[in-house]
Structure formats: C-alpha cells, structure tokens
Amino acid sequence: MKKSLIKINNDRLRIRPSAIESFYSCPFSWGKTFLEGVSQGANNSRASIGTAIHAGVENMWNDAITSGKKDANIGAMTDAAMESWKEQKQEGVKFGAKENEESCVSEIVAGATAFVEDIVPFTSIPTAVEEFFKIPLEGNPFIAELGGTVDYISGDTIADVKTSKRRSGPEGHTVQQSTYKMLANANGRKIEHNLIQQVVLTKNPTGAILQLDADIDQAKYLINGMLDVMDLIALDVAPIETILRPNPKHMFCSEKFCPHYQCCPAVKGNLAKVAQVPVKIQL
Known about the structure:
By secondary structure, the chain is of the alpha/beta class. The protein has seven helices and eight strands.
C-alpha cells in the first residue's frame, strides 16, 4: 500500500447498520476507526446513558417473553440498566458540561421509567429481542459481511430504542433502520414495519412510538458505494486519505467528539505534525 495516514489492519470487517452513515459523514474518521482499528476512546455520557437504558429494556422484554405478561418490574429493569452503566464506567465515560455520575444515573432511571409508562402499554410483547442478522458479502477486499442486532422484533414489525435530549422525527434513522429491515428479510423474516421507540431525556422524560418509512433501495445504494470505495482502495492508486477524505465541516469535527482529531490532515494546524502528507503546491 502507498504511504498513508490510514493503515490497513482489518480486512474482514463486519459493517453494522450504524456504520453506513458514519462512512459518509467523515470517511477519514471511519477509515481510522474501522480499517486501522484505532480505538474511539471512552464513550461520551450520552451514548452510555442510552446503552444502559437499552439494557434495562432488554431485561424487561425478556421477562415479559418468559412470563407472557407485560408486567414490567421497574426495579429489575433499572438494576439491569445500572449494571450496564457500571460496566461502561469501568471502561471509561466522558461526562459533558454540567454532568456527573449522579445526574447520569438519575437520567437512566427516569428514562427507563418513561419507557415503561409511555411505550410499553402500546407495544406488543416481542417474539425476540437483541436478535442478530447478517448478510455475507463475497469478494470485497475489506468488508466480509453486513450485520446488526435488532432491538425488538414481533411479527412483521421491528423497532429500535433511541434516546436523546431533544425530540426528533424518525427520518434521521432511515438508513440504519432500512438496513435492519433488509437484514431481517434476507434471513427469512417478512418485515413490513419499522418503529422508533423514542425516549426523550428532558427534565421530565417522555416516551413515544414513531413510524418510520424504510427505503431499502437507498440503503443498498449507500452500501454498494462503500464497497466500491473499498475496491478502489485495494487498487493502491493513491494514499487512502485522498480516497477516504476528511470532512472538517462535519458536526462532530472537534477534539471533544472525534478521537482522530489530532491526526487529521484537514484540521487547522495539524499539517506540521503529519510529516507523511506531501505539500505539492509551492508558492
């Protein structure tokens, strides 16, 4: 391979539905994370809170599947959520401004409670939670398969739990959720509907169920675009960062959010640190 700021350490990648849009948001960051395998560092607190609430929801639905009753045990649910939080704390969590462990724990408990009060009464007991589906991708030099885990599946419906500080529409999740639908259908399911089970973590958290219109054709187009780029990288016609270009206009292009910020050639002041980048224009 030509000398590049991105090293190829992984050539049997599994691409998750959430990794598709990140490829297009900032290809350079995507390449450092997935192809090179550079750690993304500690989770930010918002992601960790969401993961903990997911764990509580999973525990609650598994109990419901076993008992056949939607008799949510909020104590057991929050215990599972807190166990997930403790595991994440051991790995490292970055707190945001005006956040601490106490405030995050409070949000986790309130978010789990909002899910039980606002979403569970209007939701059927699932047939499965956290079910994994995959599609092998033959012939690509770096990507071996597309695979992902569905939060909730029941009959012809899949749903994904989303947590956020602000209420939003389902459109921002179309690519990810369309890919989940494609994966499930490719593995023998007949999915017709996608739902977002949204927990909004405001001062008084609320839950809502949002209908999402999937667009599998769009998802396939974007996935095929990724595969074509990987084929181009394998030809070794240019340094990888000229193919997987940085996006300094990306909303998360900052030292706070991007673990690759300090080695990104598009960040102001970094060029002197990155000796591998040739300066071809001489004035």
